[in-house]
Design a protein that fits this description.
- This protein is of the alpha+beta class.
- The protein folds into three domains: 2-60, no CATH class; 64-164, Tetrahydropterin Synthase, Chain A (2-Layer Sandwich), CATH 3.30.479; 252-329.
- It is built from nine helices and nine strands.
- It has helices at 2-20, 94-99, 104-121, 125-130, 132-149, 166-249, 254-269, 282-300, 304-329, and strands at 21-24, 28-34, 37-42, 45-48, 54-60, 64-67, 71-74, 80-91, 152-163.
- It is rod-shaped.
- The N and C termini lie far apart (201 Å).
Length: 337
């Protein structure tokens, strides 16, 4: 009998001990209720309870991501889209989370549904597809005041999917393809324009370089021609001066001058030109011929008749080209009698 009593006492002690001691894990808070009434909130560690009177409820106070179900919403331009969002929430007031709402997790999910419909109803499809940051901010602004009354803080809200209808997707694909073709055409035309500009610039530069080269070449040719003319003039001046000095040093006589004139006239007559202009006064030439005739007569020691004949032949030979030149120049030379 005593053994049975001892077993009962031990069992009762173990039962009482198991109901009076609880362990709260890190990242959780324990809410103690006595006879159904809130008593205290305990942090991580051992918590001692009054057996059969106190009860403890654990609440996770870590940040919890919750991905809601995909919702069908209608945009401002009456396009139906399927939307899914992930909510990152955290319990900051354990007492409010347990006693202000029956189930704060369900409440946050339902609040997200209504916020999604409200936010997407104020946006067009293009805005909804391109402004996710704005949508996230609007969702948090709609949900934060209500969640704070439940002791829940919404750290951030992220849109996961926005799925338009298939016909809208097809139209968007066609629009995207048209935009790509437009951009390709614009880029191609810009490339051709740039190539034409570069080619024109190259041609202009080449023309400038060619003109510069031609200019420099013409300048060099002109300078060379000028120097050549100067050198030629200097040479001719030196030759004339040398001839003049030679003539002056030998004291020329009229007979010598006549011989030189006739020699120059013979060279002119031997020219292959059809017209010969002789820049010599015919009267002076005839006088030089008479003087030469007299000299030849004295040298030969012959009679005047043959000398006259010889002088006449020489004068006739000299007058023939003179008549030709006078005819070419428009003046007829008088005939020797």
């Amino acid at each position: 009998m005593s053994a049975i009593v001892a077993i009962v006492i031990v069992a009762a002690a173990v039962l009482i001990l198991s109901r009076s001691v609880r362990v709260v894990q890190q990242g959780n808070d324990g809410v103690v209720k006595r006879l159904g009434q809130f008593r205290a909130v305990h942090g991580p560690g051992l918590v001692f309870l009054t057996p059969f009177i106190d009860r403890m409820t654990r609440v996770d106070i870590r940040e919890v991501p919750r991905t809601g179900d995909r919702q069908d919403v209608i945009t401002k331009d009456n396009v139906g889209v399927a939307v899914n969002a992930t909510i990152f929430s955290q319990v900051v007031e354990v007492k409010q989370a347990l006693y202000e709402v029956s189930d704060y997790q369900v409440a946050v999910e339902q609040l997200a549904r209504t916020a999604l419909r409200a936010v997407f109803g104020s946006l067009t499809l293009d805005e909804a597809l391109s402004e996710r940051e704005r949508i996230n901010a609007e969702l948090q602004r709609h949900m934060a005041p209500a969640a704070e009354k439940w002791g829940v803080r919404l750290n951030r809200i992220e849109i996961v999917d926005i799925v338009p209808p298939q016909q809208i997707l097809n139209a968007m694909a066609l629009q995207k393809e048209a935009d790509q073709q437009k951009r390709a055409a614009i880029l191609r035309s810009e490339g051709e324009q740039q190539a034409a500009i570069n080619s024109a610039r190259g041609q202009r530069q080449a023309a400038v370089e060619i003109a510069e080269g031609q200019k420099r070449s013409a300048i060099l040719r002109a300078e060379g021609s000028r120097q050549a003319q100067e050198l030629d003039g200097q040479g001719r001046a030196a030759a004339i001066a040398a001839v003049y000095d030679a003539i002056q040093s030998h004291h020329p006589t009229p007979e010598l001058l006549a011989v030189l004139q006739l020699d120059a006239l013979a060279q002119v007559a031997a020219s292959p030109n059809s017209k010969v202009v002789v820049p010599v006064e015919l009267a002076g030439l005839m006088g030089a011929t008479q003087a030469l005739r007299a000299v030849l007569s004295q040298v030969a020691g012959a009679s005047p008749e043959p000398a006259a004949g010889s002088g006449t032949a020489a004068v006739a030979a000299a007058a023939t080209p003179a008549r030709a030149s006078g005819t070419g120049a428009g003046t007829r030379a008088p005939r020797q009698r």
